[in-house]
């Protein structure tokens, strides 16, 4: 390394984040050729503490590339070197390694621009000349009165983008004398940004300091209303395909909330009839951005047009029919928009407990009593979650010995907790430098679907990088035991196996069973768009095996019937023959739901009598673990790129096949799990429905039933022109978990003998 105008600075031990390194990546000189044509397509990575902090653009076919790219890096420990790695980009293949070097930050003079030339080396070929990289670097201390660079915690949703304008709230002095600043964005309530300006006191004095949630913290997270948008249709849209038609779909965005409609193929007048709910955080309203796209297989989708809905111009508690002409395009969209008051969503300390207040508890019980079954059908129930504490979390931030310091290894995390119910997301404050944090917070939600799953995720707050995942649990609301404080073992991202740590929760659910049953026969709430499905070899294989297992059930049933015809077992064939004669001679239509009813009752009898023949699905669990290991390999070695992931057209087709296999397999598994009493509430609901069908078919002639069904279908659009189409049977089955979901929602038992060192998965 050749440094210009440098001097060895005497670096104090310092507090974390006390230095800022401004790096300008200038150019490369005489880089090694890695392609057949005698050139390379170089790009550069900066790594600090084993984590990638910067990646440059790729310069194609050039051994003397010029980048002139700038990066601002926050330095925890100036004695830790900055590693620079150079790669040659290869389309469809693994990128070739060109060389690496490191920059000793202790050799830099503070507050002085320094030009640096780094000679690239390959540890396997130390004598080879691989070229050099030219940098300009400036290392400066971060003082109290300097302009503060915001240290952002990324949202847990990849698609959430942070707005640039923030409101800075009044400073809150901590007990240590440091000034804690809290920044929030009113248009993105999911984002809470914390940063500390040190007063040069000992950092260890506030390692376990925990901030209480202020009123502003609560206010910035809680929504003030619900915006319900029904996408009805499009009219005379612009033709984007060669056949004079389009395959249109619509994207909605309000702040960080995003939705995407289904694709309607080959039409300029699509009928969607889909509903989406947004949270409204600003009292003055907001603007919903709407864009219309034409789906193109194998290439970038075509833009058809855009429009905006200004919610501040719409009155509340009223449904507005809007015909929105598309800008930069042709045609219009027809929407129904309704603004309603906010649901009862709150954050509080343990001292403020709604269910412990006798008066409030009675009001909640009265609101969801059987007498109120027809009042506000969307308000199914009430959920209270106490997030108490976590223990033995994974250490996400590890500082150890290096060539400059002989300090002992020090492991820590800065954990915070995210509580999610469908699209409702709230989070706790961060407890700094603690593997056993105590939050002691209470969250309350309104339940719109009793078959929802409560997800509690623990993250480690990283200052200038995305939050590190520490663990997660998924708890179906119907499996919750009210008022019981339980220790839930944290799982990995795929919810297939344990990771390090447990979280203590106390959950209460109060709901109206009649409303919950009726809501089961309505469409499920759509989830925000989070990320596009990606092609995974393990996921494709898993879905294929799942569908194969479902098909094998039908094939085995056909073999069984065939064996009866072939008289492989004379007693069995004789019994089947007599049963066939009896059923055919006495058959009535009501016997079909009656047979299903008897099957449900038989399985229930087996479970109650202790003869449960349901087996834990280890096959699906093993496949999920294989898929997780594949994801881990992708995360750990980002330089490896699969060939299929590079070919967009092939990937899109494979993803479609992968999703179709998943849907078909899930459909068969949900039918099986209905009769297996996997979710007793749904199985009892099926018994009630089948009993009603049996009675109706027994007493009412089939022609009258078909007549009523046909009249209802033909007149539905006349009676309710903007009604959303749905199939009650499919909506019911959508609430039954598939085998994959059964594994994910399965509660793990604590295993004290399980060594944390063996849990290598999901280690940040």
Describe this structure in words.
Keywords: Calcium, Cytoplasmic vesicle, Endoplasmic reticulum, Endosome, Membrane, Metal-binding, Repeat, Synapse, Transmembrane, Transmembrane helix. GO terms for molecular function: calcium ion binding. Residues 1-118, 207-324, 358-490 form the C2 domain. The chain crosses the membrane at residues 574-605, 681-709. This is Multiple C2 and transmembrane domain-containing protein 1. There is one protein chain. The chain is α+β, with helices and mostly antiparallel strands and 764 residues long. The chain has four domains: 19-141, Sandwich (Immunoglobulin-like), CATH 2.60.40.150; 221-341, Immunoglobulin-like, CATH 2.60.40.150; 358-397 and 411-520, Immunoglobulin-like; 541-624 and 649-745, no CATH class. The strands form eight sheets. A five-stranded antiparallel sheet has the order 1-8-9-2-5, with no helix packed on it. It has a five-stranded antiparallel sheet with strand order 22-28-23-32-31, with helices on one face. α4 runs antiparallel to α7 (618-636). The longest helix has 29 residues, at 537-565. It is globular. Residues 1-9, 12-17, 144-219, 399-409, 632-645 and 754-764 have low confidence and may be disordered.
Helix content: 25-40%
Give the biggest beta sheet: 5 strands, antiparallel
Mean pLDDT metric: 75
The structure class reads: alpha+beta
Strand tally is 32
Strand residues, percent: 25-35%
The number of helical segments is 13
Residue stretches low in confidence (pLDDT < 50, at least 5 long) are 1-9, 12-17, 144-219, 399-409, 632-645, 754-764
Distance between the termini: 31 Å
Strand arrangement, major sheet: 1-8-9-2-5
Gyration radius (Cα, Å) is: 30 Å
């Amino acid at each position: 390394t050749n440094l210009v105008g440098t001097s060895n600075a005497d670096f104090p031990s310092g507090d974390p984040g006390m230095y800022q390194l401004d790096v300008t990546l200038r150019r490369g000189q005489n880089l090694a050729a890695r392609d057949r044509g005698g050139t390379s397509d170089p790009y550069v990575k900066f790594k600090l503490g084993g984590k990638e902090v910067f990646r440059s653009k790729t310069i194609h076919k050039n051994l003397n590339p010029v980048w002139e790219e700038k990066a601002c890096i926050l330095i925890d420990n100036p004695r830790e070197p900055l590693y620079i790695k150079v790669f040659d980009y290869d389309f469809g293949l693994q990128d070739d390694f060109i060389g690496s070097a490191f920059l000793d930050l202790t050799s830099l003079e503070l507050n002085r621009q320094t030009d640096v030339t780094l000679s690239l080396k390959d540890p396997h070929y130390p004598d080879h000349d691989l070229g050099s990289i030219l940098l300009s670097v400036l290392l400066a201390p971060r003082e109290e009165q300097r302009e503060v660079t915001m240290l952002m915690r990324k949202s847990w949703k990849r698609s959430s983008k942070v707005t640039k304008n923030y409101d800075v709230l009044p400073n809150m002095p901590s007990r240590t004398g440091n000034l804690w600043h809290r920044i929030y964005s009113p248009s993105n309530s999911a984002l809470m940004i914390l940063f500390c300006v040190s007063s040069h006191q000992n950092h260890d004095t506030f390692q376990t300091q925990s901030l209480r949630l202020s009123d502003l913290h609560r206010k910035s997270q809680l929504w003030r209303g619900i915006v319900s948008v029904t996408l009805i249709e499009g009219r005379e849209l612009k033709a984007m395909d060669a056949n004079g038609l389009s395959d249109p779909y619509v994207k909605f965005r309000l702040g960080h909330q995003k939705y995407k409609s289904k694709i309607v193929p080959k039409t300029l007048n699509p009928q969607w009839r889909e509903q989406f709910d947004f949270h409204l955080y600003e009292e003055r309203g907001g603007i919903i951005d709407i864009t219309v796209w034409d789906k193109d297989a194998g290439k970038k989708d075509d833009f058809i047009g855009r429009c905006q809905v200004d919610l501040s111009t719409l009155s509340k508690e009223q449904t507005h029919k809007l015909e929105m002409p598309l800008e930069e395009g042709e045609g219009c969209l027809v929407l129904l928009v309704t603004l309603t008051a906010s649901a009862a969503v709150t954050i509080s300390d343990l001292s403020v407990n709604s269910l412990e207040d006798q008066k409030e508890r009675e009001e909640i019980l009265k609101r969801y009593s059987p007498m109120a079954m027809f009042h506000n059908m969307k308000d199914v129930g009430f959920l209270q979650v106490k997030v108490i504490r976590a223990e033995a979390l994974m250490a996400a931030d590890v500082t150890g010995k290096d060539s400059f310091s002989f300090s002992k290894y020090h492991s820590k995390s800065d954990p915070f907790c995210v509580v999610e119910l469908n699209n409702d997301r709230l989070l706790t404050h961060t407890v700094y430098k603690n593997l056993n944090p105590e939050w002691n917070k209470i969250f309350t939600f309104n339940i719109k679907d009793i078959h929802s799953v409560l997800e509690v995720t623990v993250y480690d707050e990283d200052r200038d990088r995305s939050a590190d995942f520490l663990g997660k649990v998924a708890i179906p609301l119907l499996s919750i035991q009210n008022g019981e404080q339980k220790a839930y073992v944290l799982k990995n991202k795929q919810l297939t196996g344990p990771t390090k740590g447990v979280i203590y929760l106390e959950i209460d659910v109060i709901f109206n069973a009649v409303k919950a049953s009726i809501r089961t026969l309505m469409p499920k709430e759509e989830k925000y768009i989070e990320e596009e499905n990606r092609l995974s070899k393990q996921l494709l294989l898993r879905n294929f095996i799942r569908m194969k297992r479902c098909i094998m059930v039908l094939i085995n049933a056909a073999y069984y019937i065939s064996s009866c015809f072939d008289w492989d077992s004379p007693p069995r064939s004789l019994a089947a023959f007599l049963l066939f004669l009896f059923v055919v001679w006495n058959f009535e239509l009501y016997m079909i739901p009656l047979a299903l009813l008897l099957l449900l009752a038989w399985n229930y009898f087996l479970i109650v009598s202790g003869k449960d023949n349901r087996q834990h699905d280890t096959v699906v669990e093993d496949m999920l673990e294989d898929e997780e290991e594949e994801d881990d390999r992708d995360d750990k070695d980002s330089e490896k790129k699969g060939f299929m992931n590079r070919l967009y057209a092939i990937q899109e087709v494979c993803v479609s096949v992968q999703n179709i296999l998943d849907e078909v397999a899930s459909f068969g598994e949900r039918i099986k799990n209905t009769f297996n009493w996997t979710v007793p509430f749904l199985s009892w609901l099926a018994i009630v429905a089948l009993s009603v069908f049996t009675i109706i078919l027994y007493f009412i002639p089939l022609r009258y039933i078909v007549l009523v069904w046909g009249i209802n279908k033909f007149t539905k659009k006349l009676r309710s022109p903007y009604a959303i189409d749905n199939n009650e049977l499919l909506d019911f089955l959508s609430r039954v978990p598939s085998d994959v979901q059964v594994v994910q929602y399965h509660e793990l038992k604590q295993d004290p003998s399980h060594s944390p060192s063996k849990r290598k998965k999901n280690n940040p």
